[in-house]
Amino acid sequence: MNDPPTPGGTSERRKMLAGELYDSFAPELAEERIRARRLLAAFNATDAADREQRARVLDQLIGSLGEEVWVEPPFLCDYGANISLGDGAYLNANCVVLDCALVEIGAGALLGPNVQIYAAAHPISRAARAAGKEYALPVTIGPDTWIGGAAVILPGVSVGQGSVVGAGSVVTRDVPPEVLAAGNPCRVIRQLEEELDE
Question: Which active-site residues does the annotation give?
Fold first, then answer.
C-alpha cells in the first residue's frame, strides 16, 4: 500500500499539498498523473468478476486503502496517491476525485454514481490561470456518510460523520455531522436521528 505524498518532496508537489499556488505543468506532477492514468486504464478495463485484479490495481493507485473497499468502474482521479479510502468505503460508477490535495473518504462512506470531489481549484487571476497555476485544498468525507448521485464536493469542504448529502447537491461549505443536507448550494435540511428498519 502506498503512503500519500507528504509536503517536503519536490517543490511543486510540496506547494500543491500545502495549498499554495503551484505549477500544474511541472514535469514531476505530469509524470505522476501519467502513472495514475495508466493504472486507471488498467482498473477500468478489468473484468467485472476479477475482484483480485481490481484490488491489485487499486492497491497500486490509492495512497491509503482500507479493507473491503469497493470502487465501481469507471473511476477517474488525478493522482490516486493523495486519496485515502477507509474500510468498507463504496464508490459507485463514474466517480471523479481530483486529488491535488489530500482527499479522505471515511470508513463505511457510500458515494452514489457520478459523485465528483474537487480538491483542485484555479485562481481568479486570468494571468495566473494562463500560466498554469493552480491550488488545492483538502476534502474530507466522514465515516458512515452517504453522498447522493451527481453531488459535487468543492475544495476545502468536510462532510461530517453520518451525514447524508442529497443527489445533485453542490457542497460549497462544511456539512456538520449527522445531518441531511441538499441543494445548490447545499444547506442543512434537518438533523438526523438514528433510524433502524424493523
Answer: 122
Cα–Cα distance, 190 to 180 (Å, whole number): 5
For the record, the C-alpha cell of 40 comes out as 486507471
Strand spans (E) along the chain: 22-23, 64-65, 70-71, 75-77, 83-85, 90-91, 95-98, 103-105, 110-111, 116-118, 120-121, 133-136, 139-141, 146-147, 152-153, 158-159, 164-165, 170-171, 179-183, 186-191
What is the distance between the alpha carbons of residues 30 and 141, in angstroms, rounded to a whole number? 27
Those residues with Cβ within 8 angstroms of residue 126's Cβ, 6 or more apart along the chain or in another chain: none
- The whole-model pTM stands at 0.91
- Rounded-to-integer distance, Cα 105 and Cα 59, Å: 15
In the beta sheet, which residues pair with residue 97? Answer: 77, 117
Contacts of residue 70, Cβ cutoff 8 Å, sequence gap at least 6: 89, 90, 91
Of 141, 101, 127, 108, the residue nearest 4 (C-alpha): 101
Q: Give the pLDDT confidence of 50-75 residue by residue, as tens digits.
A: 999 999 999 999 999 999 999 999 99
Q: Are 107 and 87 in contact (CB under 8 A)?
A: yes
